[in-house]
Amino acid sequence: MAFSYKWILPSALALLLFSACNLEKEIELNLPLYDSQLVVECYLEPGKPFNLLLSRSAGFFDPFATETDQFLNEILVDDAQLVEIEHGGQTYTLQPGIFFDFETKKIFNYQNPELVPDSYDQDFKLHIITAEGKTITAQTRILPVVPIDSIVVKWDASDTLAFVLTYLTDNPGQDDYYRRMIHQSSLDSTALQDFVVSDRLVENNVLLFGTGPDFTEGDTIISTIFHIDRAYYEFLESVQNAVIAGTSPFGTPGKLITNLEGDAGAVGIFTGLSYDRVVTIIQR
Fold first, then answer.
1. pLDDT (tens digit, 9 = 90+) per residue, 22-31?
2. Which CATH architecture describes the domain 148-227+277-281?
3. Residues spanned by CATH 2.60.40 within the chain?
């Protein structure tokens, strides 16, 4: 009887697939209960009111409210006994409410309408007492603006699409951190670029940020360089890593790096914002 080897591999594969189908079983995972945490976001921007967001985190599998009012009621924490910021011998008490920053599209639930002073040489200190009597503290400082030296527009070989190059000079005598953002048309559009860098790899004290050949004549480009401290740099990096980890319920949870202290166990960031921003209309 003749025997053909060409049937061995297909037959073996069919047998494996049949076996795999028969061995398929449901697996029950006993996931630990998620312990919600308080979350604080407070960005001190000179010339703007003292704004703060106090909320609570939610688990990956927690039900998600689809109505805006219900969603805000579930995540916002508006019953703190005290929210205050101290600076230069003055104390600013923040009151609860709903406050909206139309430029950044951010919502806050505590505010003092006095404007953040343009001060770079004194610390700001945050003190929160929760409804349960627990504390959240932090301190930060607004860093001086690092100005953008120049914005250069270059055209590709076809002379139809443009690159945008952003140059700034870094101080060689200190460790600096930056957040680079670039928008097209308006600040309420999705950022085309949004990332943080340190100056550890800077050569000749010059930082260069570039884009691809993504723009045409007449486009409006908004380039922003934030001068940030190490705490905010590490926080943003940890948020990015947590977002990546959160794409799967079975991934390793990302840990947020925070500069908050106190027995409330809160996470988040208390930091100053200083930036230079240049609007460029693409022209030949």
1. 555 666 655 5
2. Sandwich (2.60)
3. 148-227+277-281
